[in-house]
Design goal:
Elements lengths: L4 H4 L12 H11 L4 H5 L5 E4 L14 E16 L9 E9 L4 E7 L4 H6 L5 E11 L2 E5 L2 E4 L5 H7 L3 E4 L8 H11 L12 H6 L5 H9 L4 H31 L13 H8 L6 H14 L6 E6 L5 H14 L3 E5 L3 H15 L16 E5 L5 H13 L2 E6 L13 E7 L6 H8 L7 E6 L5 H7 L4 E5 L9 E7 L4 H16 L3 E5 L6 H11 L5 H5 L7 H10 L7 E4 L5 H12 L5 E4 L12 E6 L7 H8 L9 E7 L6 H11 L3 H11 L26 H17 L7 H10 L12
Parallel strand pairs: 4-6, 9-14, 9-15, 10-12, 10-13, 11-12, 13-14, 16-21, 17-19, 17-20, 18-19, 20-21
Antiparallel strand pairs: 1-8, 2-3, 2-5, 3-4, 5-6, 5-7
Helix pairs in contact: 8-9, 9-25, 9-26, 10-12, 11-12, 13-21, 16-25
């Protein structure tokens, strides 16, 4: 069933427009709003009360803001300039206040006349503009404004009582203009089709959708806003969970070949040669995976674990079980460095079991091949041949695995490493290479809070490895404030020398490579908008090539220092990693190319330069590269950001805990709402608007239960046309099966 025509009506159309054509054009281009329904779902970010004013003292730099304030004073200055050499230039400076702070507004040239007449001391108005700094004071240059006159019938009517909605706006379209446009289309909210089944809505005491839309855009009390938000949160959580439940339901209808390992086959031989015993967690998760592999429907499992919890070993045992059962397993890695690293560590762990068909290969052995885009033609031909004949039971590769030329004898299991780097399209392309849908195991080393897992990976069963293997050492982390205390940085390099003197190795991580391509990108970025932290910090991020050079000639002189980054030739990268793994290199200066999967137990210290330029989860990932052996690990987070900055607080949080799940919550709370599902809903026209993934844990969990019950009873949603409609507007129909995971 289609959307109700009134809500589906375009804001801009050739013959008549719901709004003026210019406004409709800006809404489409800058806010992604194309229909009446889109505009009704563009909710206010917050509300101003006429009696209370925005905290001017807390305005964010470089952001487009809307504030309600009172004019304290206004002064007109004349000055001489190139355009007005006789001192005829005019500048109007208006100071506004809200009780918490003051803000200066400036208007120039011919633009001073109207505000000079209207912005008299005592006048209250809404002002919108971009916050900048001039002479160390915050200001808005040429802000748009709307006077709040109590006597103006139109203003009072359009702002409906005491609460003024402030909408997410752009420089091209101020909040109050969006508000006026919303008021124009608000009557059509009565025709909105309700996606929630009546029993669910009534059972949970939620207001009907038309009422919720009316209350969110034109509230009379704070209780109105609370009612509306409670209802709209349920819509977002429930519709998304229904989409995931339908995908999950469709997957369970597919046939798959059950894969049960032989009692005394390859897996048993592998377990017998392991020099350690599996942790309780590894055994439990392996059992969940083996139970899934034995069923006649494809496994869809997410394996998430702390950095260093032994996910690769669990995945390898699953691959060996499938090879035992006569199938093949493919592992998809996001980078060549990681694919090579996995290939090397898996062949080392398997020993002669990885030498199938070769002299010296064990009785149950199979072949383990590597397939990447940069391989030589002969090696590539051989790898492809081994796959199509079934000679190779295990293949590890990058996106090169997805190409049409790659064919399998009998693909039984796909393991995707670092899921957040792959789209569902790529995943499905690889799964399409099986005669029947293969089983799927998705691994991520970024621990995901339960709510995010339910929201983003809702179609996957989840297994968690939160136990570190025996023999792993704790990692101490410290923030090194290089600007406040330069001697701390000097001490950091001394610590590196001490670790090397004790026979260990070190990583130094930088955000940038530092070659010419880098410089060109920086020059291009220089013309773009900068974040406040970049403004405070004029220099570009530190670069691998520069730092390696400075360290080699300075504090680390005499040590063997090498570099590793993504633009090196793959063979060179591999050679550098081999030398580092063999202990021939003392210090590896690298970009985040070492972020996942790199395993050198002898590396005990990591220095992260410009640590404030990395995200919380990324820092946790990087830190996991040390402390992998019996010696304790040390991670030093170097920053020049001031102590009071948000960046420093973020680093303090990372230094304070090794719990990845706790850090991922912090990461999520600090990122702007909506980022979480930014990539999670490919084909979705909307990201989350009122649902906050961390705060609304209960809503998400309950919505998931309700969604599963609804889909089990009516997979095609034939009895729920309103829900079907909401799904269609969430997902482009042909892409529903590609609900992309973050």
């Amino acid at each position: 069933m289609d959307l109700v025509p009134a809500l589906q009506e375009p804001l801009k159309q050739p013959l008549k427009s719901v709004l003026g054509p210019a406004t409709a054009k800006v809404m489409a281009e800058h806010l992604g709003l194309h229909t009446v329904g889109d505009l009704l779902h563009h909710y206010p970010r917050r509300y101003e009360e006429r009696g209370q004013l925005t905290q001017l003292a807390e305005l964010p730099m470089d952001e487009h803001v809307t504030v309600v304030a009172q004019v304290a004073d206004a002064r007109l200055h004349t000055f001489a300039s190139a355009k007005a050499p006789r001192g005829k230039g005019q500048r109007l400076e208006v100071t506004i206040t809200d009780g918490s702070g003051r803000l200066q507004l400036v208007f120039f040239g011919n633009g001073v006349h109207k505000p000079h007449k209207e912005l008299l001391p005592g006048t209250r108005a809404m002002f919108a503009g971009k916050v900048s700094v001039f002479n160390r004071r915050l200001q808005l240059a040429h802000p748009a404004y709307e006077l709040l006159r109590g006597d103006s019938e139109e203003t009072v009517e359009s702002w409906a009582g005491a609460l003024i909605p402030i909408y997410p706006a752009t420089a091209k379209l101020e909040s109050w203009k969006i508000g006026k446009a919303v008021q124009t289309v608000l009557p059509t909210a009565q025709e909105a089709l309700d996606p929630l089944p009546p029993s669910l809505r009534e059972g949970r005491g939620l207001v009907p959708l038309p009422e919720a839309l009316l209350k969110i855009h034109r509230p009379h009390t704070k209780a109105d806003i609370a009612d509306a938000r409670a209802r709209l949160k349920w819509d977002e959580a429930f519709v998304l969970q229904v989409a995931l439940a339908r995908r999950r339901h469709a997957d369970t209808q597919l046939p798959a070949v059950p894969r049960r390992p032989e009692p005394d086959g390859l897996l048993t031989a592998f377990d017998d040669r392991l020099p350690f015993t599996l942790t309780e967690g590894q055994r439990k998760v392996s059992k969940e995976i083996f139970d899934d592999l034995a069923t006649e429907h494809p496994m869809h499992r997410l394996l998430q674990g702390e950095v260093g919890s032994g996910k690769t070993l669990v995945a390898l045992r699953a691959m060996l079980a499938v090879v035992d059962a006569g199938g093949q397993a493919a592992m998809l890695a996001p980078t060549e460095v990681l694919a090579q690293q996995h290939h090397r560590s898996i062949t080392e762990m398997m020993g002669e079991l990885a030498e199938g068909g070769m002299l010296g290969g064990a009785e149950h052995a199979t072949k383990v091949v590597l397939l990447t885009g940069s391989m030589g033609a002969a090696a590539r031909r051989q790898a492809l041949l081994d796959l199509v004949t079934g000679e190779a039971g295990i293949v590890i590769g990058t996106h090169a695995l997805i190409e049409d030329k790659v064919q399998f004898h009998d693909l039984g299991l796909v393991v995707v490493d670092e899921q957040h780097r792959f789209g569902v399209e790529q995943r499905d392309a690889l799964r399409g290479k099986g005669k029947q849908p293969p089983h799927l195991l998705v691994m991520t080393a970024t621990p995901i809070p339960r709510t995010v897992a339910m929201t983003v990976f809702g179609d996957l069963e989840t297994s968690v490895l939160d136990q570190l293997p025996a023999g792993r050492s704790p990692i101490a982390s410290h923030v090194v404030p290089a600007a406040d205390k330069p001697h701390f940085l000097a001490r950091a390099w001394e610590r590196v020398r001490e670790e090397v003197a004790n026979g260990h190795q070190a990583y130094v991580v930088c955000p940038r490579i530092g070659d010419d391509i880098d410089e060109a990108a920086d020059a291009k970025k220089a013309g773009q908008k900068k974040s406040p932290e970049d403004e405070a910090e004029k220099r570009p991020p530190l670069a691998v090539l520069d730092i390696a050079d400075q360290l080699g000639r300075g504090p680390l002189q005499g040590l063997k220092v090498e570099v590793l980054h993504g633009r090196m030739n793959p063979d060179d990268k591999d050679a550098v990693m081999r030398r580092f793994a063999a202990g021939e290199t003392d210090v590896l200066v690298a970009t985040t190319v070492i972020e996942v999967g790199v395993n050198v137990p002898n590396a005990t210290v990591m220095v992260i330069m410009d640590a404030d330029r990395f995200g919380v989860s990324q820092l946790h990932q990087l830190r996991g590269r040390v402390g992998r052996g019996s010696a304790p690990g040390l991670c030093l987070l170097v920053t020049e950001m001031p102590e009071a900055s948000a960046a420093r607080q973020r680093l303090n949080a990372v230094a304070a805990t090794l719990d990845g799940f706790e850090l991922s919550r912090i990461d999520l709370e600090q990122r702007r709402e909506g980022d979480v599902l930014g990539q999670a809903q490919s084909g979705a026209r909307s990201s989350l608007r009122v649902l906050a993934v961390i705060e609304d844990e209960e809503v998400i969990a309950e919505a998931r239960q309700e969604a599963m019950a609804v889909v089990a009873a009516d997979p095609e949603l034939e009895q729920l046309p309103g829900l079907r409609t909401a799904l269609d507007s969430l997902l482009d129909e042909e892409r529903e099966q590609y609900l992309e995971k973050g």
